[in-house]
């Protein structure tokens, strides 16, 4: 699952504790910037049978002083479809489109 808009103080252990109430957490990864600071989002791996329940219960929930954005991660086919022109994205100098995550924009322009 994708877990966005999390506090920069939130760590993997806290997310594992939260999502364990829905089922076994297999992995929790919080990407960081090159200098080591968290980027404000995470990927949490749960069984697909309980992921829907976790998304429904956690999306929009206040956690660490912020409203979490939780969604199921996209399959490779869904990602390809989402990257097609006409979606929310930005065109780079090579004429290629890339998606700009809301979390990145919020950090970059706040």
Description:
The strands form three sheets. The protein has a four-stranded antiparallel sheet. A two-stranded antiparallel sheet has the order 4-5. The protein has a two-stranded antiparallel sheet with strand order 7-8. The chain folds into two domains: 1-73, Alpha-Beta Plaits (2-Layer Sandwich), CATH 3.30.70; 76-110, no CATH class. It is an alpha+beta fold. It is globular and about 35 Å long. It has helices spanning 12-19, 48-58, 76-82, 102-108; strands spanning 2-4, 25-29, 41-46, 62-63, 66-67, 69-71, 90-91, 97-98.
Please summarize the sheet with the most strands.
4 strands, antiparallel
Per CATH, the superfamily of the largest domain is: RRM (RNA recognition motif) domain
The amount of helix comes to 25-40%
Report the mean per-residue pLDDT as an integer.
83
Identify the CATH architecture of the largest domain. 2-Layer Sandwich
Strand order of the largest sheet: 2-3-1-6
**Which topology of the largest domain does CATH recognise?**
Alpha-Beta Plaits
Give me a quick take on this structure:
By secondary structure, this protein is an alpha+beta fold.
